[in-house]
Design a protein that fits this description.
two-stranded antiparallel ribbon; single chain; mainly alpha; 3 helices
């Protein structure tokens, strides 16, 4: 009798822990980065898959890999859709390089020009 009771209890536990099986809703049947899903419970009490978008990378400076401020994150396809105003900042190399790298480039260019002038003046002294 106790054995039957034990089986009954075990059966009830198994029933309560049984989960609903889910299948992908699209044709791609592999767990690839483009096929990531999230389990969602519908108002009817069923579980379904909702497809999630890939995580968006932060725009970074091409020289020093620092995060670019003032530029929102977008997936590449969405970047093509939004206006130019939202993709850049009003500065030389805005949206591509950070402010400190632009400053360094300007200073370097100025020093190179100064060096050229010094080289031109040096032979005249002799």
């Amino acid at each position: 009798n106790s054995h039957a009771h034990e089986l009954f209890v075990r059966h009830r536990k198994e029933k309560s822990t049984m989960v609903q099986r889910l299948t992908y809703r699209r044709r791609l049947s592999y767990n690839t980065p483009s096929n990531r899903v999230k389990i969602v419970k519908t108002p009817g009490g069923k579980l379904t898959f909702h497809y999630t978008k890939k995580r968006v990378g932060i725009p970074k400076c091409g020289d020093c890999s620092e995060k670019l401020r003032g530029i929102p994150r977008f997936r590449p396809a969405e970047l093509a859709r939004i206006s130019r105003r939202r993709k850049t900042v009003n500065r030389a190399y805005g949206g591509s390089r950070c402010a400190s790298c632009v400053r360094d480039r300007i200073v370097r260019a100025f020093l190179v020009e100064e060096q050229k002038i010094v080289k031109q003046l040096a032979p005249k002294k002799k």
